[in-house]
């Protein structure tokens, strides 16, 4: 006896069921910490030399409850002329994410790539706004490929080389 089309529609492969059960939800996005230093003001506003901009990046993630994780993307922007710091902004943009149905071996890439990618536009706006409110032109950060950074960290770990701070 042949199965009816309705019966075939109900019998899905196990892989399709796993894909349907995976969930990624943003619970909250917020500024965890924001620091601005403008040590040379008001003299720094009269400088004719364009400052050199250095950008530092760090991410971390930790479980805060079952299937719930906090990811923090910290961006540090330092502007210097010579040996003088013109301004320094450190923004820790955070988010609480619910991640369910993701196999344990795939959780780290989600936390290291996808969560920071969600947070980055908010952090970029925070940095631009802070530098503008400090009296300087806004610093507009270029897009970041978190997948490439993650792959670079994996390659460094596999080769035994010390990991560089992002």
Describe the fold and architecture.
Helix 3 (104-133) packs across helix 4. This protein is α+β, with helices and mostly antiparallel strands and 166 residues long. It contains four helices and four strands. Residues 1-12 have low confidence and may be disordered. A four-stranded antiparallel sheet has the order 1-4-3-2. The chain has helices at residues 5-10, 14-21, 104-133, 146-159, and strands at 23-37, 52-65, 68-81, 84-100.
> How far from one another are the termini?
62 Å
- Structure summary, number of beta strands: 4
Let me know the largest β-sheet.
4 strands, antiparallel
The fraction of residues in strands falls at 35-45%
- Figure out the total of helices: 4
Average pLDDT, rounded to a whole number, is 88
Q: Unreliable segments (pLDDT under 50, ≥5 consecutive)?
A: 1-12
- Work out the helicity level: 25-40%
Sheet with most strands: strand arrangement: 1-4-3-2
Which class best fits the helix and strand makeup?
Answer: alpha+beta
Radius of gyration of CA atoms, rounded to a whole number: 22 Å
Taken from the alpha-carbon principal axes, the silhouette is elongated
């Amino acid at each position: 006896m042949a199965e009816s089309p309705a019966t075939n529609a109900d019998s899905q492969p196990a892989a399709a069921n796993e894909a349907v059960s995976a969930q990624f939800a943003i619970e909250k996005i917020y500024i965890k910490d924001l620091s601005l230093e403008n040590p040379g003001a008001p003299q720094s506003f009269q400088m004719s030399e364009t400052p050199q901009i250095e950008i530092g990046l760090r991410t971390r993630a930790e479980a805060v409850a079952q299937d719930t994780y906090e990811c923090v993307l910290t961006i540090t922007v330092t502007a210097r002329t010579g040996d003088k710091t013109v301004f320094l902004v450190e923004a820790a943009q955070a988010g609480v994410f619910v991640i369910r149905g993701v196999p344990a071996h795939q959780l780290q890439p989600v936390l290291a790539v996808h969560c920071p990618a969600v947070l980055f536009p908010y952090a970029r706006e925070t940095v631009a706004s802070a530098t503008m409110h400090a009296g300087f032109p806004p610093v507009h950060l270029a897009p970041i490929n978190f997948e490439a950074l993650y792959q670079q960290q994996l390659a460094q770990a596999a080769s035994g080389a010390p990991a560089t701070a992002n």
